[in-house]
Amino acid sequence: MQKLGEVMVESFLDYSLGPYGRALSALLFKYQFPVNCAIFAFVVFSIIRKLYIRKKEQVNKHD
User: Fold this and answer.
1) What whole-number distance in Å separates Cα of residue 31 and Cα of residue 22?
2) Which whole-number Å values give the CA distances from 14 to 19, 25, 45, in the listed order?
């Protein structure tokens, strides 16, 4: 039996991507852990980069 979240994501992919949605959702659920890790790493990288740029701008304003 599928979980509610899987059904929601799968139906969304079917609707938005048409015939490719079923294959993409199967790949997504097969490789769910690596995909989630990649998304998490990208978000953390983006946050750190924004903080670094903001801090660098503050240092340049003081000079």
Assistant:
1) 14
2) 7, 8, 30
pTM of the model: 0.56
Nearest alpha carbon to residue 13 among 25, 4, 3: 25
Q: Could you tell me the sign of the dihedral formed by the alpha carbons of 11, 16, 20, 26, in that order?
A: negative
Per-residue pLDDT of the chain (63 residues; tens, 9 = 90+): 556 556 676 677 677 777 777 777 788 888 989 989 999 999 999 999 999 888 877 777 765
Q: Give the other-Cβ count within 10 Å of 46's Cβ.
A: 10
> Residues with Cβ < 8 Å from 45, sequence gap 6 or more?
none
